[in-house]
Design brief:
Elements lengths: L2 H25 L10 H18 L2 H29 L3 H11 L4 H17 L4 H29 L7 H36 L6 H26 L7 H25 L4 H7 L4 H28 L6 H5 L3 H20 L5 E2 H8 L3 H13 L3 E5 L7 E5 L8 H9 L10 H4 L3 H16 L13 H5 L2
Antiparallel strand pairs: 1-3, 2-3
Helix pairs in contact: 2-11, 3-4, 3-5, 3-6, 3-7, 3-11, 6-7, 6-11, 7-8, 8-9, 9-11, 13-15, 14-15
Length: about 450
């Protein structure tokens, strides 16, 4: 073998080795690096976003939301146009819809015909009340499913109550048409005002650019508001705005692709005829939902990137260490209750005591299921839940904690187990008696917890 061949093989081996090292670092080594530089944070956010996108099965959720959106299109347009008629601005709303969704001009035109029939049929009598009820139920059901999808991405276990959903979503559905009318009016006023002030021919491209930039900003703000208000948890504006900018840009790029691409889809016209817009509409809706849900994933990842620094270690945690952390979190909840402090949120426990998010979420959920803690809505913060002790702290011992966790779940369902293993149950009972004797006097309240109030106030 000549020197050139050896040199080439050595170079290939080095490149392969460095590629493997880079892959290992990007996939898992990021979370073990203690540095918090901006480029590492960006890589961590991208890493967590990809993992969350795959783990939450966003594609399947987008398919489900596409089906629900198709069911809600006609009721949604009916509500919009009915309110538009009340203001005498039905034509303005139609023009606004065509402007917002230029890629679906044909689909909106077809839907308008159904809407006209729908509104004509619901003009009088009992059918009017039934029709409105069905219309609102369809739209509230769609928004509820959107909230469930966002909560799944954020790992939120509790959603809004039925009453909150009915009132909040109904108010949103009634306000949205008014906002669309206001947006259209503002756009027209801004256009006429700029053209009156800068009545110069060379300023026309600048004015057009300003108006287009305004539309882009409104799209970004729409997604930002969705990421902040829909999940049943507290979302920071900075993270929501970043995700809204990415999702809004993706949505506008998708619009442009569909507007320019419809000229090259004549094959659909040959196959589907006058209904060629239907498969294109389905594809467009699904891609819009993929963009929307992907933006929610980025928002979640960017806000929680530091909490996942030990995610790989949590996946392989030992039973002993999980039990140790469980006792520590139980002691935190107990001590804050005795000191009269605000119930600790999951984020408090993560940030103050530097416990990984996934471990905090798993343990607090188990404590709630066993009845040792309650999830309570904090009065001083919107949609933020804390964990409050649900038992008497004077009798909350290690034995009580062990028994509750030890007996959580189904048991004694294997037929013939006692006969096949007659010596197992007596030995287990001896272990339990020994543990009870040792741990019955160990109060959770006696475990010292560092009071980091200064750090807590900075959260």
């Amino acid at each position: 073998m000549d020197k050139t061949t050896i040199k080439n093989e050595s170079r290939i081996a080095r490149i392969t080795g460095r590629t493997i090292e880079l892959w290992n670092f990007l996939s898992s080594g990021l979370w073990s690096d203690p540095r918090r530089t901006w480029w590492l944070n960006t890589l961590r956010t991208a890493n967590l976003s990809v993992k969350s996108f795959l783990n939450r099965d966003i594609q399947t959720q987008a398919c489900a939301m596409t089906f629900r959106t198709m069911l809600a299109i006609v009721p949604a347009l009916a509500l919009l146009l009915a309110i538009g008629r009340g203001f005498g601005m039905q034509g303005v709303l139609q023009d606004e819809l065509f402007r917002l969704f230029p890629a679906q001009h044909t689909a909106i035109s077809y839907a308008m015909n159904f809407v006209e029939s729908y509104l004509n049929q619901t003009s009088e009598g009992v059918f009017l009340g039934v029709g409105i009820a069905v219309l609102l139920w369809t739209l509230i059901s769609l928004l509820s499913n959107v909230e469930d999808s966002f909560n799944l991405i954020w790992g939120v276990k509790t959603s809004r109550s039925i009453w909150r959903k009915a009132t909040d979503y109904t108010a949103l559905l009634l306000i949205l048409p008014v906002l669309m009318l206001c947006a259209s009016g503002i756009s027209l006023m801004l256009s006429s005002t700029l053209r009156a002030i800068f009545d110069f021919e060379f300023m026309t491209p600048v004015i057009s650019l300003i108006l287009e930039g305004t539309q882009v900003l409104m799209t970004i703000l729409f997604f930002t508001a969705a990421y902040m208000l829909i999940p049943n948890t507290k979302v920071k504006f900075g993270n929501a705005f970043l995700s809204g900018a990415l999702a809004g840009t993706g949505f506008l790029v998708l619009q442009w692709l569909f507007v320019t691409g419809t000229l090259y889809v004549t094959r659909y016209n040959a196959i589907y005829g006058s209904f060629a817009f239907i498969p294109l509409l389905l594809i467009w809706i699904q891609l819009v939902w993929v963009i929307c849900l992907a933006g929610a994933v980025i928002c979640y990842s960017s806000q929680n990137v530091f909490a996942f620094s030990l995610d790989r270690e949590v996946s392989t945690i030992s039973s002993r260490y999980r039990w140790t952390v469980t006792i520590a979190i139980s002691a935190i909840i107990t001590r804050r209750f005795l000191d009269g402090e605000r119930p600790a949120t999951a984020r408090d426990i993560m940030n103050i005591y530097e416990i990984p998010a996934r471990l905090v979420t798993d343990i607090t959920d188990i404590l709630v299921k066993t009845g040792l803690a309650n999830r309570v809505l904090l009065p001083d913060e919107k949609e933020v839940y804390g964990y409050q002790l649900a038992v008497n702290p004077a009798s909350f011992t290690i034995e009580v904690l062990t028994t509750r966790l030890y007996t959580l779940g189904n048991s004694d369902f294997i037929n013939g187990f006692d006969k096949n293993f007659p010596n197992v149950i007596p030995k287990i009972e001896k272990i339990e008696q020994a543990l009870s004797t040792v741990a019955s006097d160990m109060l959770l309240a006696d475990i010292s917890i560092p009071h980091l109030k200064t750090k807590h106030n900075t959260i």
